[in-house]
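Quick one: structure for this chain?
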Amino acid sequence: MHTNNRGLASLETDSVGKVFVRYLIPSLVGMFMMSVNVVMDGIFVGRRLGEIALAGVNVAVPVFSIYIAVSLWVGIGGATIYSEHLGAGRHKEARSVFTHSLALIFGLTLLLAGLAFAFREKLAVFLGADAETMPYVMDYMTVLLAGGFAITVQNAFSVFVRNDGNPNLSMLSLLVTAVFNVVLNYWFLFVLDFGVSGSALALVIAATLGAGTLAAHFLRRDATLRFVKPRLSWTLMKRTFAIGFPSFLAEVGIAVFTAGYNMAMAHWVGTVGVSAFSVLNYVHSVMLMLFIGMGAAVQPPLGYYRGAGRTDRQRSLIRIAVATAFGTGLAVLLIGLAAADGIVSLFGMFAPEVRAMAVAGIRLFFIAYLVMGVNFVMMTYFQTTGHVKMAIWMTIAREMLLMAALLAVLPPVFGTTGIWLAIPISETIVLLTVFGYVRGRARSGQTSRSAA
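Got it. Here's what it folds into:
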């Protein structure tokens, strides 16, 4: 399959290892930049307006998470179909999918934001606002609901640009968003004294500028990505939602994981346990972005190879990605075992009991990283190659079903150790089901060939 797009042409001509690295590095940097945005909001608000204002922003942050979840739901679903069409040389259909997805995500975001805006006070109370934090929650949430569609459009647009063979511009867009978010946060809070609403405004404007950066992709003569006249297709919409659903669940799962561990620690250990988990959760948020980035890196070439019928390249890509994820996880585990005390020290001085529990927690919890990256890569593989039910199972099981069951069963027997080991055991069980599924399909394939 030949194409004039230099980025897409390299998918056919370059070695699979080179293709993986070309998508991996921008994906990792981009994911890290996404996590920086909310962290920087918290830092600026906390330093300028104090702990109650910071608590208010933290209450409103799930609204940002919802935007990211929706953008990934439609963005990954649509971009996977887009890549399949590109691989098959169906450029007209690919452009139609792109336009349809952007229109869908714009309309869906406006609908959700409109409903949330109309009931924003009730939403704030539901998210945990009290008399002290309510003014700050409302200030931050009102701006985010009014202009947050920029976040979803930019994030989804970024996914499509990456799938059109330009991962570096996708990364640059997220870098621009992060840099301007920092600059505008300082300007609005410390110079103009806008308060919490200024922090939300900085995020919205930064996302808009990030989306504008992606417009440079249309200036490339070899770009396949183009807007066409939008046509609503229920069939395409259902397929987009189905393929992208695991990505949506993965984002929701992050919130479930945090809530589950906080509740388990509060019940079995108390404030000391919650404080120890908060230290680990900061580290985990960075590691999670690393492994999500690995999964995101294989999605564009996998979709392209599927459309082009290059199953040989699909298999080679997955082998390299799985080996990379496992090797990275092993390195991180070894670092955690050797440097747990130093990692905790990065986050400040803690009471001896909190410090001891956090150090022990890192050494136990980091076992999960041996298999977590592999699970993210395989989840993306199933999601991209039509095995969506398996991808959904992996996502729901990892940080919802199995985690919840293990958090209920292990602590009464093993105490705090059982809480720390819930995710490592959950990830391992999910990986075993993946091996079983892959081997089962391989055997059924061999049986079918023998019968033929």
